[in-house]
Amino acid sequence: MMPLPEKLIRPVWLGLDQKALDDAYDQTVYAPNFRQLHERRITNSADVRRRLGEPRRLTYGPTSIEQLDLYPTAKPHSPVIIVVHGGAWRDGLARDFGDSAEAFVRSGAHFVVLDFINVIEAGGDLFPMADQVRRAIAWVAAHAGTFGGDPERIYLFGRSSGAHLAGVAITTGWSSAFGLPGNLIKGAVLSSGMYDLKPVRLSKRSTYINFTDEMEEALSPQRHVARINCPVVIAYGAYETPEFQRQGRDFAETLRQANKPVQLLVGVGYNHFELPETLANPYGLLGRATLQLMQLF
Hints:
About 35% of the residues lie in helices and about 20% in strands.
């Protein structure tokens, strides 16, 4: 097949044609070592379980996937960090995202990793994922005292599509929706996320997500920053796709303009899958930022 004439290659979003936009929402195009990093994360998570012991498996909802892994710290009345894993909304299990648990447990924090439905199982709908993440956070806050956690010190960490879901969580009206304090979440670290779904909807991710106007509006955190009641750290790697970098910059700028406490971090030399490894290091970019946010560093 002959290539299309240049004049027929139309920009779809901010000067990007369809292929460029599709590539900009496919991190594997910009991270050729992604399989190696995926294998390393799973191996590192298994190593952490061997050192700390198997996490407590707790149920937060009625369906089989609505469970979480708790890596408890020995200190009583300690803060809780809730991790929302990534996986392009399609993949990932809590068990394989425990690689950073040891750094937090040793620093005096309970480390919680959520399981939740994926978008394929949800029939292309992101709303069930967002709902489960919210309910899991509410459950942790309500039950923190039963495992030695402090319900007044609940923090979030999200990576990739998990950063999007964590962004949705911090824009949740906790008082109206759950009868919980509006400042339930005391801080959030969002690594390499998507905060406005419009360009995502235009990309090839729409082949497995059934985007609607309602979904785009309701689940775009950047459009609801007035609801945010906590400090936010936004991070991305310098070797990520141009759209993931822009999403992070734009969300941070929107927060600044709304006079919300925000910090923007750029991981120089890191791609999308390498940057989260720094969460496992108390002196790494994400590890230090998260522990400082939790006042544990």
